[in-house]
């Protein structure tokens, strides 16, 4: 269960890094104008997949916790 929990939290951390949620407004603005549309689209797609994986891992950890505690 701990492995699933850590994997879920790691996926959510990677999602925050890829989406730019962990930066300041100035950094986000600079990143937006420095990247092309294709780069932003690929980062957004990867962030969405990591978010989905994080939610699945956390849900699995919750189910394992409820079943085997």
Automatic annotation (TrEMBL):
One Pfam family from the record: DUF5316
Protein name in the entry: Uncharacterized protein
Keyword terms: Membrane, Transmembrane, Transmembrane helix
Matching InterPro entries: DUF5316 (IPR035167)
Transmembrane stretches, start-end: 47-68
Naturally occurring in which organism (per UniProt): Paenibacillus lautus (Bacillus lautus)
Domain of life: Bacteria
